[in-house]
Amino acid sequence: MSVRVIARLDIKGPNLVKGVHLEGLRVLGSPERFAQAYYREGIDELVYMDVVASLYQRNSLVDFVRLTAQDIFIPLTVGGGLRTLEDIRQVLVAGADKVSLNTAAIARPDFIREAARKFGSSTVVVSIEAIRMPNGQYEAYTDNGRERTGVNAFDWACRAAELGAGEILLTSIDREGTGKGFDLELTRTVAQAVTIPVVACGGAGTLDHIRDVVSRGAADAVCIASLLHYDLLKRMGTDYRAGEEGNVEFLKQARNFSKVSGAAVGDIKRVLRESAIACRPAFESTSHV
Amino acid sequence: MSDSAAPAIVIVDYGMGNLFSVLRACQSVGVEAVITDSKQAVSDAAAVILPGVGAFGVAMENLAALDLIDVLRDVAATGKPLLGVCLGMQLLMSESHEFGHHRGLDIIPGNVVQLPLIPGLGAASKVPHVGWESVEPPVSSREGHAPGSAWDGTLLEGLPGGEYMYFVHSFYCRPRDQARVLSVTRYGTFEFCSAVTLGNVMGCQFHPERSGPAGLLIYRNFSAKVASLKQGEQRAGQA
Q: Which of A1, A123, A169 to mutate to test the interface with B (most CBs of B within 10 A)?
């Protein structure tokens, strides 16, 4: 069975952003440009996450989804601030294939059941943002790792699957944006406990990390942000416009991101295939230029 | 809607799943398809796409409520191109065992059953099956042919064999007649029928509209088939 390589695009207003532990967001450029490039290079799926939607109780992704879904013919998952069946319907009509639910699902777990019944299980991804507690247990957080819930992440994954979720998007907030590698223990524990696919997210800093989370973490798919974004920035240059909202200092300075070297879609697929991990081949093996 | 204004290709909207991406795929290969739930529009169309995501039983109920069941059978019987995608492929079969027992459109004899969870494979066996897998001609049609040439004249024509397509499903089709199997796909160690064909009817378990350039080729082939049938009709009309 093939492993999927998914690009995660965190969106804030009109911009693609990237933080560390989902905080301290830097503007990286226009998300359409990144999405198009990944599609051309053979990424298997895209995830758009409106990273401040829950915080500000808004849902600004619909127009953006409509715009970018026009020319991209791979699965698109959209999350962030989806609170009602009508919210879900709107992003699906705009061109999303799946929705990612977190805050609203934890607040009212039956939301998963209702969404699965109305739109089909395969449409419903439950996003779990996990933080490791001092006692070694993992707790599920909401609002991009800002709010504690008191819910055990492992129990929540099993419950979400029972309620009809089609997939789990499992993010280690501890590792997110750090480039220190995926949380293999978290991923393996959840992936082996549920019979639905588990997408590992948060921490990829090298190609070995990606291989490890599949071979040792039992991940069914990997979700990558920094590695892909910083590689593409190096190859494409920046497109930020003066006066753009958000923290654009990083782009102005054109600094290298110190911990993450960057890898293209082709690099990731090549390493997986060399490790006898099946995946759809990339279209072009564009390494660092 | 008058006959002259009848759209060439209609996408059937029966309340199940993502029609937008199917429409976008059609547009991207130059086809102006129309989304409709009208019995008349489906009946008048030159070709029909039956998409769908969700539960088999609900889908058949919705088709019945729109009075589309006989219309779709007529589309197939009159030789118009009919493409079923994902759940739309499964609906072409005689019956399904998804959450009970349901009768299908019975256009292609066979049934729909659940993918097995293969014990011991760990992460290699999850249901639903979500992901990109390669699509091959069945062994019987592979013998003595160059890879992929078994698909000449079908909607998979031009694909090399082994092309990766995007799947999301928990159930799969078992056509009664093996000759209906257009392609097979392996899920772990388990091989299932990933596309069927019968005359101008075709079904694919994967989502060609979500399978990148390789998937779009199927819509291009579908559109070419509709165009060539139209030309044939015009010639016949002139003769």
A: A1
